[in-house]
Design brief:
The protein is of the alpha+beta class. It has helices at about 15-25, 80-85, 100-105, 110, 150-155, 170-175, 200-210, 220-225, 235-240, 250-260, 285-295, 310-320, 370-385, 390-395, 405-410, 415-430, 450-465, and strands spanning about 10-15, 35, 60-65, 70-75, 85-90, 120-125, 135-145, 165-170, 195-200, 260-265, 300-305, 340-345, 345-350, 355, 365, 445, 445-450.
Length: about 475
């Protein structure tokens, strides 16, 4: 396509359906990027092109009656009387970002092979508006592994051409069968390429709509989350735990959590076998901080503890809720595959594997810094979900953008010095002691809450809200 021009898909329907269809486009802006809605009986599209006449401009038109394709014609002029009561919608097309891909050094295989792009119908449902509803359709372009970041970054800034990818990788996991026949043509991938899927408007609007009787994480956040310095405190060196930091581990853990629907959190280690209860103060506060943020992100969260400590932890949870903790997690066992978080209960061993009581789960994310790690995960999830690229990818480009109310809810779930100090008071009330010293007070692993832990929490908040 000539630089500076945008290809448009066209849908013409009766004025009685126009408002619903516009609402459908607004709710599904990725597959249906709305370039222009005409007035009733308007043939031109002034904001997009001069001297246009939609009755004659397209090389071919599909004419549907009562949801059935009746004919294909080269002109709509003979339908001018009917078109007086119809509205034209101009929708963006992914061909509009192919020049940006080339400029970013990403090969466009369908162009190289002289083919149309491959398109697949997915199992992902578009958000319904009025009588319009359908599964989303995606176009597929094979992208070399070392060009995936370039492809995502170069297309994200072009939302009127469907924007960035809505899925990268194995199509059978999420969208469509890898062996399914494309709606268009097959484009041959090369070695070390990944399937890169973008929303598509063609089949979404022209096929499924008519069947319903109607005539488809940015660099700044990565730097904040991937750095081993997300928890920067002079305490780290003196505690001998800096070696436990692994580059990008926090980012990868939060990406796994953000894409999950259910999260199981385990915590509570019986450190003080000479005391009753034997639990320590390191673990539960971090677990509850994570659970609060995950629930605000609409994840199903369950905190698991052993039977001996179940009643005590139920009391701790109730007291935390009474004091304003944003959490309603259940203390029960789950039996299906999910993401598992261990807080001061699992450990990283020399082989690079995690040693934990669970053997069958999707993945294990371990907070090796216990409460500090739990606070960091809660804060990092907040930062990650504010990223527009991640938010769009997470929701397949469907639905509305993040609202101020959602952001306010997430912010309210961030750890604060006051909330975590109150949490320690609750633990002390039930006899939970410091892990290193067995002191019954506002202390975790031999460090008093003020000034040590409060300093870490405040540093995290400052970085998170910067």
């Amino acid at each position: 396509m000539k630089p500076g021009y945008q290809q448009a898909n066209v849908v013409i329907l009766h004025k009685d359906l126009a408002d619903d269809f516009e609402a459908f486009c607004r709710a599904n802006s990725s597959p249906l990027p709305l370039l222009y809605r005409s007035k009733c009986g308007e043939w031109s599209c002034g904001p997009l092109a001069t001297g246009s006449d939609i009755r004659e401009d397209c090389p071919e038109y599909c004419v549907f009656e009562n949801g059935v394709l009746m004919k294909k014609v080269a002109s709509l002029s003979s339908y001018t009387p009917q078109l007086q009561d119809m509205v034209t919608f101009y929708l963006g097309c992914s061909f509009g970002f192919e020049s940006a891909l080339k400029a970013a050094g990403v090969p466009v295989r369908n162009v190289e092979q002289g083919k149309n792009v491959s398109m697949y119908k997915t199992s992902v449902a578009c958000i319904r508006a009025g009588q319009f509803h359908c599964p989303m359709v995606v176009s597929m372009r094979p992208v070399p592994e070392d060009k995936l970041d370039n492809a995502a970054q170069s297309t994200h800034g072009i939302p009127l051409a469907h924007g960035g990818p809505v899925h990268i990788g194995d199509p059978s996991i999420y969208m469509c069968n890898a062996t399914s026949t494309p709606l268009g043509v097959s484009v041959r991938p090369r070695q070390r390429s990944h399937f890169c899927f973008s929303s598509c408007a063609i089949e979404c609007t022209i096929v499924d709509m008519f069947k319903q009787n109607a005539i488809i994480a940015p660099s700044s956040e990565n730097k904040r989350l991937s750095s081993a310095g997300f928890l920067q405190s002079p305490l780290l060196s003196s505690r001998g735990i800096r070696a436990l930091f692994l580059q990008d581990e926090l980012l990868k853990a939060c990406l796994s959590l953000s894409h999950s629907s259910s999260v199981l959190i385990t915590t509570g280690f019986p450190t003080h076998y000479m005391h009753n209860p034997p639990e320590e103060t390191d673990g539960p506060p971090g677990a509850i901080a994570m659970a609060a943020m995950l629930q605000a992100l609409r994840k199903e969260v369950v905190i698991v503890t052993d039977g001996r400590a179940l009643e005590m932890n139920q009391h701790i949870m109730r007291d935390a809720i009474k004091k304003g903790a944003s959490i309603i997690a259940d203390l029960v066992f789950l039996r299906y595959s999910l993401v598992v978080l261990g807080v001061d209960l699992s450990c990283l061993v020399r082989t690079g594997s995690y040693c934990t009581m669970f053997s069958e789960c999707v993945c294990v994310c371990v907070c090796v810094l216990s409460n500090w790690g739990g606070y960091a995960v809660a804060c990092a999830l907040y930062v990650l979900n504010l990223c527009p690229i991640h938010w769009r990818y997470l929701h397949s480009g469907l639905g509305l953008s993040l609202t101020p109310d959602q952001q306010s809810l997430w912010m309210a779930c961030l750890p604060t010095v006051a909330k975590e100090e109150e949490m320690l008071h609750i633990l002390v009330k039930y006899g939970v002691r410091s892990g290193k010293t067995a002191n019954l007070g506002l202390e975790v692993d031999g460090l008093t809450f003020h000034p040590y832990h409060s300093d870490v929490i405040q540093r995290l908040r400052n970085l998170t809200l910067a």
